[in-house]
Each structure stands twice: as C-alpha cells, then as structure tokens.
From TrEMBL:
Pathway membership, UniProt: Amino-acid biosynthesis; L-cysteine biosynthesis; L-cysteine from L-homocysteine and L-serine: step 1/2
Source organism of this protein record: Vanrija pseudolonga
UniProt entry tagged with the keyword Oxidoreductase: no
Enzyme Commission number: 4.2.1.22
Chain residue ranges for the region called Disordered: 370-391
Name this polypeptide is given: cystathionine beta-synthase
Amino acid sequence: MASTHHWNGVLDSALDAVGETPLIRLDRIRDAEGLKCNLLGKAEFFSVGGSVKDRIAKRMLEQAEKNGILIPGQSVVIEPTSGNTGIGLALACAIKGYKCIITLPAKMSLEKEVLLRSLGAEVVRTPTEAAHDSPDSLIGVAERLKEQIPGGVILDQYSNPNNPLAHYYTTYGEIAYALKTSNLRRKSISALIAGAGTGGTITGLARAVRDSEKDGAARATIVAVDPVGSILGGGDVGMYQVEGIGYDFFPAVLDPKPPLIDEWIKTNDDEAFAACKRIIRQEGLAVGGSSGSALAGALKFLKSEEGKAIAEDPTANVVVVFPDGVRNYMSKEWFLKQEEGSRDAELHDTIRGIIGRDLDDPYLKKKAAADAKANGASDSAKPNGVHATAA
Ligand SMILES: Cc1ncc(COP(=O)(O)O)c(C=O)c1O
C-alpha cells in the first residue's frame, strides 16, 4: 500500500497532482505544549485543488467512468458539498469536459464559490439551516436538479465507497511511506486524529491502520473530531462557523464506532480558529479552520487520561490531518481578525514612526466600512472616512 512520490518527470494533467502531500513535524507546538511524542501534520492543502477532498473527487469520478455511470459528452456531474469536494470535482470536470453543478450551503466561503465558478462549475447556494432531508438543503436541491437535468449524476460522497477507499489507498499509503522512510525511531502511527464531515477520511484511514495492525504493528488510537453543533460525536444540532466537518445526520460512509474509531472529541469555533492561527503563526503552515479543529482535538486527547501515555512517549507518532488551506477562508471575519498580541508591537511602532502613519489592517478597514454603512454614511460622501476610522 505504501507509495513512492510520483512527481518524477512530467505529469499528464493536474489530476496527477492530486494528493502526495507532506507529513510535517510540528515541533514548535509540541514543545510549547510540553509533549514528548512526535506531533506530525498531514498538510492536504498541498494537493492540486487545495484539499483532502481532491482524492475522493478523482477516485469517484474515475470509477464512475469505468463503470459506465459517467458518459463523456453526456453526463452532468451534480454534487452537494461544503465546497472542497466540489472543487476537486469541478477541476476533474474541467479537464475531462463534463458539465458540473455544485450545491453549497450559504455559510461556505466566497473563496470556494469563486474558485468553483472559475473552474466552470455552476454554483447553487442553499440555506445553511435547512435540515439534510429538506428539499431546500444542499442534498435536496441536488436531488431535484438530478431528477430534471438530462444526464444528471450525483456521485454522492456521503454514500460512495470510493470516498473512504481513496483514503485507504492513497492518504494512508503516503503516511506509512513517510514514516517508513523517516529517521523517526518508530515507523508506525501511535495515534491518528482527523475531523469528520462525510467521515470518509477518518473511516478510510482507520480501516487501513487496523489492517496494518494485522501485520503486527502496535494498536493505534484513532480519534475523530467533531464541532459542537454536529451530532456525529454526540450533542444537539446547532450552528457553527467552521466549514467541512460535522453534520445533522450520519453519512453512510462513516463507521463511527470501535474497533475503527476509539474516541470522539468535540471542539468549538473559538478553539478551532485559535488553533488554526497558531499552526500558521508557529509552524508556518497556512491551514484552514477545520485543521484548527483537528489540532485542538489532538491536544485535548493528548492531555486526557487516555492520551497521556502517548503524549509522554518520545517514540510515539501522533498524526493530525490538516484537510485544507486558509486561502479558502481569507475573507472570513474570523481570519481577518488577528488575535490580540499576534503582532510584534515594538516592530509595529517602529514602522509607524518611520512612515509617519498607521499601518493598514484589512480587518479594521472592513469593520470601519461596515460601521460607516450602518451609520448611513456612503463612501463617496466621506472619501477619507473609512481610512480615518481605521487608523
Ligand atoms: C475543510 C474540510 N475539512 C474536513 C473535511 C472532512 O472530511 P471528510 O468528509 O472526509 O470527513 C472536509 C470535507 O468536506 C472539508 O472540506
């Protein structure tokens, strides 16, 4: 199952640049948290479409072509998604010449929608609060479109076995290969932590890990992370901002119980976004919000009774999946607003002293523009108003 890096020579198309992402030490966070184990991030934003979901899009589409479900020149690919599966599919459709329609809940970022459109997909926004079985939900609208558009096909990441299989065959193989060829003392996974949306990532990885244990590897602990407001890891349905993880129903591809998944950990938006910014600031990895959820969940696990032995073992390898990158979320309020104390105040003051004015802060600018709008002031009436308030 282990793969070698395939970026030798020239690739046939962007589809050959799906996956093959690096496993990266998070030593600064590990040390700051007083952990002894190796803390390793699987950085999926390196994949060509920018996320872990490129893998399933490619596999679902290619298998559907093999099985005659998709017919070039005729089929229209329709998919309900939180965006990343859509980007992977739209990218594959652009290359292969299929029409593509993506249904996307309103809360998902503008960046995802604009990228989808630039790849040639039609995007239909749906109300975030619509229950999964409502005709207005992302799934309900996709179903209605499929029924009425000739050649319409939903590959359906929620039930398609190629979703977990993509991770079984590629994501796990890459992690195993990275560990095997590393200079780490142990070559196996001690704990694996990932968020769950459809559950394809965690289920596919967990199956591959359990199969590797049949060959004699020590048992790994598999931890799934779920946002407060989702029912997958327990609790009630509610609203949350983090994108890509959590649902109000159990997708068929998710196998939520032991022996596959040992534990579920809940995280909230504040923890997720703070951890996301920390990964960027301390490790230089520009990951997205659900990567923050995964790290926050990993740290909770490593500090728990169950996780302590792993945290204190210097040979243990703890792998955290980072599903996408922050370039998907640049316009989101939570990202524009940087944490207090995240900038070097002394350096900031020095620069201000030299250039003789305040530095532009995109969050303050946006906030000032919103305040001005709320107060009924138009930008044209007060050309300097926004800037003056921001300073
Ligand atoms: C940003 C992000 N994180 C995490 C996930 C969860 O992955 P999975 O659906 O494999 O559980 C997704 C899935 O769409 C995602 O887009």
